[in-house]
Design a protein that fits this description.
By secondary structure, the chain is mainly alpha-helical. The protein contains 4 helices and no strands. Helix 2 packs antiparallel against helix 3 (about 75-105) and helix 2 (about 45-65) runs parallel beside helix 4.
Length: about 140
């Protein structure tokens, strides 16, 4: 039976340390919010959460591209702005239904709906700050 000498242990330890550091840096760069895994069983809440995370995904991809230094064509920016406006309009129209449906639901459904809405609120907050950063600043510069 072969024994492993100390050089082999050092090599294995070095390899594992390099793998751990490289994987942790890759994971730390991905700060993407994840949509809730379980639905709240309230249709209006689930629709709101789904629409907000669709918008979040589009804005997150655009934000990642611009941070990476990739030049995004103006047509894609215009399409993103148009889709964002449509999504925000549809989200605002769903709010009264959400309030009514949550108040009529059981305590457990209300709790799950609140958790899902809080997660979508974080996603929408990211969208608002990114849109302010990229698009509001560019419109002010164009007017000058």
């Amino acid at each position: 039976m072969k024994t492993i000498n100390s050089k082999s242990y050092n090599l294995i330890a070095f390899f594992l340390m390099v793998m751990f550091l490289s994987v942790s840096t890759v994971w730390s760069q991905e700060n993407r919010l994840k949509p809730p895994k379980r639905s709240s069983k309230i249709k209006s809440v689930d629709n709101f959460v789904n629409h907000s995370f669709e918008l979040y995904h589009k804005v997150f991809v655009y934000d990642s591209l611009t941070k990476a230094g990739v030049e995004v064509p103006a047509e894609i920016e215009d399409e993103l702005i148009e889709r964002a406006e449509r999504n925000v309009d549809s989200l605002w129209q769903e709010v009264p239904d959400i309030v009514d449906d949550i108040s009529d639901a059981s305590f457990m459904k209300q709790a799950k709906a609140t958790l899902n809405l809080n997660r979508s609120k974080k996603a929408l907050r990211f969208c608002m700050t990114a849109v302010k950063t990229y698009f509001v600043g560019t419109k002010d510069e164009e007017e000058d």
